[in-house]
Structure formats: structure tokens, C-alpha cells
Design goal:
By secondary structure, the chain is of the alpha/beta class. Helices cover 27% and strands 26% of the residues. Strands 3, 5, 6, 9, 10, 17 and 18 form a 7-stranded mixed beta sheet that branches. A 6-stranded parallel beta sheet has the order 13-12-11-14-15-16, with helices on both faces. Helix 9 links the parallel strand 15 and strand 16. Helix 7 packs parallel to helix 8. The longest helix has 13 residues. Bound molecules: adenosine-5-diphosphoribose and zinc ion (2 copies). The site of adenosine-5-diphosphoribose (APR) has 24 residues, from helix 4, helix 5 and strand 12. This is S-(Hydroxymethyl)mycothiol dehydrogenase. InterPro entries: ADH-like_C (IPR013149), ADH-like_N (IPR013154), ADH_Zn_CS (IPR002328), ER (IPR020843), GroES-like_sf (IPR011032), MycoS_dep_FDH (IPR017816), NAD(P)-bd_dom_sf (IPR036291).
């Protein structure tokens, strides 16, 4: 029997989001229905609402979520009703070229539910990133459910489903930060702070946080930054070089998504160092760099999608480290809110005093 629950939809371009009754079908083969317990508010949800992702309105927003599996369809063996899970948007296929080469984090045929959730009049909804979790229940592909230790609070766990995983993974998976490395992170929002926490966890000897807002730099220190640079008042490239014996950092992570901060990252790294772009640029942005510098400085210029994470490997591990007190994921939850407060959370996101607002159900 399909069920009716409440969910937050974006009805049309730039229209305010609102809570509506949505219809969640029973899980078909390979699918699962999850009772959502918490879902963070991410920039991508706002981009959907603004029509910046595509025009498939109405959207069912929300994608950084944790909850309990309620029911599963035929052929589902990896999760069962009652399992506590984090939802992911990288349910790997196991069959594409990337998967077969042993690099499933680059999978290009990831799974979502085949059936559609709808409004009560039958209008099909497009779930954000194939998840749609600002809702009491949601329908996903079973592979989108990653089991983790249920001892963790759902509001904290859900954040690993997107932005926080992107940041931690940018440092650990993409940047390959290791013991003794010097790391600089440009932009200390939720993603940048997660990169700082990831670098700290990986054993970086120096973690330099760069932002234009002193409040952000203060928070960055609590995530593991050893040094901070306000790039409004001092040149970040000079400052990072000074803090690293004149060399530059081994790994510089750009978590803003702008050409000028990318350029800073490029010049703030040591020769043969690594730049990781995890901030998301807009389509019109262009980057100009002397090709000779790209060549002459060596090293690698990488970008990081979802922190190059493999949910089945990374989520349980990071939750365990959090429960052991080694990863302060709880610090990313600035406030918990209700389903009908998502629009307000979008506004707060821009005022810059929120790392994450999390809807709890
Ligand atoms: N130099 C340094 N820091 C900057 C600059 C700049 N020129 N411009 C903005 N910032 C800082 C902001 O002060 C803020 O602390 O970057 C941070 C951005 O944080 P958020 O807006 O909270 O964004 P976040 O969720 O961290 O995402 C960062 O990654 O996933 C993408 O779409 C996301 O592009 C965005 C980026
Ligand atoms: Zn694949
Ligand atoms: Zn997201």
C-alpha cells in the first residue's frame, strides 16, 4: 500500500518551498522505503529551488539524511527493516567500466529508485540527488542505504550523506593527506571545515584555515586548524608560504568554488604539491593560469566529487571514529529545525552563521 506522508517540495523556479502531502509507493525490486529521522539543509537544495540544477520541477528536496529502513522490495539483501542507515547518492552499479577497474567511487551508473514518489494528484516528483529526504518517509534504491552504528545521533549521521563527506573526502581520499603533511583549506564553511577535520584526522602536522570571515576562522580552529589566515586583511599565498617555511602547503583544498580562490590554492602549494577543488563553480566561471606554471610547478590538480567517497567503506568508518571521539561531526549541527522551516534555513545559510541546519523528524 502506498503511503501518504509530509514532504518539502520546490514547486517552481524561485518559488518558496512548502510542505505538501506526498505519496510514497511500496518498495519495488531493489528498492527500500526509509523512515527519515534527520536531513541537513545543503546548498544544492537551494540550487534546485533556484532552477540551477535542472528544470524538472516539482522537486522533493533534501538529501543529507539518516533514518531507519521500514520496508524493502524483492531481491534486497544488504539492508533489512529496522536497520539504521545514512542515505547516499553514490549507490555503485558494480558493472560499469569504473567499477570493474576497481574504482567504484567514479561509478557512472549509480542507482536510484525506479518508481516515482508523487503528489496526491499524481504529479511525479523529482527527488533531489535521487533521495528527497525532507520527508517523513522516502523511497530510494536499496544501495543508497548505508548501514552504520545506530549509537550515533541521526542529525549528526545524516551530514555524512553529502557536504561533510565531500569535505572529509577531499582531504583524505582525493588529496591523500597523510601524517606530517602541511594542509591549507581555503573557505571554511561546512565543506571546508570538514576538510580541516579530515586533514587533522589523517595526521596533518599543520592545518591552515583561510577565510574572509573571522567567525569562520574561530570555528575552523575547533575543527583542527592549527593556524588561521584572514584573506581580506592579508595575502593568503604569502601567509601560507610563511607558515610553511617558505615552501607552500603539501595539499591545498579549495572549498569556495571561485577562480580567484583557485588561483590562491594553485600558488599556495609547494612544488609538486596537490590542489583539490571541492567548491562548486558556476557555468560562466573561467580560470586563467600561465601554462608554464602549471607545468613547472609539477604535482597534481584534482577535483573532488562527493569527496571521492565509497559510502560502504567510508560511512561506517567515519561514524565509528566519531563515536570514539576522534571526529567532531556533532559540531557541524548548528541548529535543528522542523520540516516547515526549510525556507528560513535557506535564508540563514546566506547570513553565514550556520554550518548546517538539520531538519529532525
Ligand atoms: N576567500 C576565502 N573564503 C571565502 C571567500 C574568499 N574569496 N569567499 C567566500 N569564502 C568563505 C565564506 O566566508 C564561507 O565561510 O567560504 C565559505 C563558504 O562556505 P559555505 O557558504 O557555508 O559553503 P559550503 O557548504 O562550505 O560549500 C562550499 O562547496 O559544495 C560546495 O556548493 C558548495 O561551492 C560551495 C562550496
Ligand atoms: Zn559502476
Ligand atoms: Zn548536498
Amino acid at each position: 500500500m502506498a503511503q501518504e506522508v509530509r514532504g518539502v517540495i520546490a514547486p517552481g523556479k524561485n518559488e518558496p518551498v512548502r510542505v505538501e502531502t506526498i505519496v510514497v509507493p511500496d518498495p519495488g525490486p531493489g528498492e527500500a522505503v526509509v523512515r527519515v529521522q534527520a536531513c541537513g539543509v545543503c546548498h544544492t537544495d537551494l540550487h534546485y529551488k533556484q532552477g540551477g540544477i535542472n528544470d524538472d520541477f516539482p522537486f522533493l528536496l533534501g538529501h543529507e539524511a539518516a533514518g531507519v529502513v521500514e520496508s524493502v522490495g524483492d531481491g534486497v539483501t544488504d539492508v533489512a527493516p529496522g536497520d539504521f542507515v545514512i542515505l547516499n547518492w553514490r549507490a555503485v552499479c558494480g558493472k560499469c567500466r569504473a567499477c570493474l577497474r576497481g574504482r567504484p567511487w567514479y561509478c557512472f551508473d549509480t542507482h536510484n529508485a525506479k518508481q516515482r514518489m508523487t503528489l496526491t494528484d499524481g504529479t511525479e516528483l523529482s527527488p533531489a540527488l535521487g533521495i528527497g529526504a525532507f520527508a517523513e518517509k522516502t523511497l530510494v534504491a536499496a544501495g543508497q542505504c548505508t548501514k552504520v552504528d545506530p549509537a550515533v545521533s541521526p542529525a549528526v549521521a545524516g551530514l555524512l550523506g553529502c557536504g561533510v563527506m565531500a569535505g572529509i573526502g577531499a582531504a583524505i581520499n582525493t588529496g591523500g593527506v597523510g601524517r606530517g603533511d602541511s594542509v591549507a583549506v581555503i573557505g571554511c564553511g561546512g565543506v571546508g571545515d570538514a576538510a580541516i577535520a579530515g586533514a587533522y584526522l589523517a595526521g596533518a602536522a599543520k592545518v591552515i584555515a583561510v577565510d574572509i570571515d573571522d567567525r569562520k576562522l574561530e570555528t575552523a580552529r575547533t575543527m583542527g586548524a592549527t593556524h588561521t589566515v584572514n584573506s581580506r586583511s592579508s595575502d593568503p599565498v604569502e601567509a601560507i608560504r610563511e607558515l610553511t617555511g617558505g615552501f607552500g602547503a603539501d595539499v591545498v583544498i579549495e572549498a569556495v568554488g571561485r577562480p580567484e580562490t583557485y588561483r590562491q590554492a594553485f600558488y599556495a602549494r609547494d612544488l609538486a604539491g596537490t590542489v583539490v577543488l571541492v567548491g562548486v563553480p558556476t557555468p560562466e566561471m573561467k580560470l586563467e593560469l600561465p601554462l608554464l606554471d602549471v607545468f613547472g610547478r609539477g604535482g597534481s590538480l584534482k577535483s573532488s566529487w562527493y569527496g571521492d567517497c565509497l559510502p560502504s567503506r567510508d560511512f561506517p568508518l567515519l561514524i565509528d571514529l566519531h563515536l570514539q571521539g576522534r571526529l567532531p561531526l556533532d559540531k557541524f549541527v548548528t541548529e535543528t529545525i522542523q520540516l516547515d522551516e526549510v525556507e528560513k534555513a535557506f535564508e540563514r545559510m546566506h547570513q553565514g552563521d550556520v554550518l548546517r541546519s538539520v531538519v529532525v523528524l
